[in-house]
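Researcher: I'd like a structural prediction for the single chain below. Treat it as a standalone chain; there are no partners to consider.
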Amino acid sequence: CDRCGLWGSWAGAYIAVHVGHALNDYFIAHPEPFVVFGFWGALFPAYWLDPQGPPIMIVRGSDDLVVPYENALRLSARAEEPNLPYTFYTLDNVGHGTNIKQPQPDLGGETIETVTIDFIEAHLLGTQPLYEVKRLIQD
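Model: Treating it as a single chain, here is the predicted structure.
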């Protein structure tokens, strides 16, 4: 694929991040995504994050009891080290998975779904994506 992204949720988040950032370590042929999304998952070891890999968007709940929130913090910290472009949204007081169509006051009333689509569009069309780290307070 000339321009593709990988978006995974829960176990799919692990797969998306792994395909985008770790398969080269195994010399496995795969499409090189322009961007990777990991929602509600990613037991992905942070040290596997490829500094030359595609930008990543991470969305996690701070109260996730299925996949420890600390995993997302480690992934975010690892992306900071080589200045890998990324966005990281923490949904405060939210567990494993939520409605991504719920308006978020800290995103100007936009939804996670909308900002994700904007993020995808910016990467695939070659415009400037928004990279940020935000803690979103839930009403």
